[in-house]
């Protein structure tokens, strides 16, 4: 049985408690804001156990229903994990790019952001990290990237190619920066990345074979620390995807306005 984590200390500025009573019709939202602020400030850290519901009710001066609603919101936001059992409760989670990515994917899916928009962001971000990848990548990174290319080629040979392999290559390339912020940012874009790749593949089913050739060339540029060549390959690689998406997606009103000729 794993050792029980100590409960986080709950005090505020006046009485020595971190969590203070709130009085508002949006009480559960205010509780969420307080807990979120404590996590962001480092006063609550991953693995910390929030006080039991009864104690939180007393600290906040609210009903158990309100506390449970706040906990549901925190859990949905990936900030806490609700565990059941003798050693259960609400525990602060370790932030991951998967949780961030799920939120970004939902946001983009529900908005008017297009696959072409996503690819334009990728052009700025993924071309921009190439010099850092060339300077930071080690043999483990190169081996991992090569293994992904091997799996891409095996899938192509059997007609079972999945664009998820291409997305995996790009997120693993970001990991080769050895910069956690870049890795999490690119990884969090995994869902939108799949969206753009899937749409691009519809206009050019052969893109998988051309793509893996460029992936191999990128690995070689990283191996020789040739950032200029790597940037060129990545720019051409992503620009081709963007061009295919232009053929498939109708222009949004904003894009039509940008491309419309000026009138005097």
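-> sequence recovered:
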């Amino acid at each position: 049985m794993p050792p029980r984590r100590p409960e986080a200390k709950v005090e505020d500025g006046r009485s020595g408690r971190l969590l203070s009573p709130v009085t508002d019709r949006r009480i559960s939202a205010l509780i969420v804001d307080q807990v979120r602020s404590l996590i962001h400030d480092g006063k609550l850290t991953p693995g910390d156990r929030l006080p039991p519901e009864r104690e939180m009710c007393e600290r906040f001066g609210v009903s158990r229903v309100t506390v449970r609603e706040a906990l549901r919101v925190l859990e949905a936001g990936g900030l806490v994990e609700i565990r059941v059992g003798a050693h259960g409760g609400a525990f602060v989670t370790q932030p991951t790019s998967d949780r961030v990515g799920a939120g970004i994917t939902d946001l983009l899916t529900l908005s008017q952001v297009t696959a072409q928009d996503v690819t334009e962001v990728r052009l700025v971000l993924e071309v921009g990290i190439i010099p850092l990848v060339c300077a930071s990548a080690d043999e483990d990174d190169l081996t991992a990237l090569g293994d992904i290319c091997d799996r891409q080629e095996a899938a192509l040979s059997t007609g079972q190619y999945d664009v998820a392999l291409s997305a995996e290559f790009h997120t693993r390339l970001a990991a080769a920066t050895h910069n956690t912020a870049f890795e999490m940012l690119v990884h969090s874009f995994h869902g939108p990345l799949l969206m753009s790749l899937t749409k691009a593949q519809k206009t050019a089913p052969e893109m998988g074979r051309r793509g893996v050739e460029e992936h191999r060339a990128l690995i070689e540029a990283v191996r020789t620390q040739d950032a200029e060549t790597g940037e060129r390959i990545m720019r051409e690689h992503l620009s081709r995807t963007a061009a295919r998406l232009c053929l498939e997606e109708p222009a949004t009103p904003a894009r039509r306005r940008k491309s419309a000729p000026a009138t005097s």
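The radius of gyration is 24 Å.
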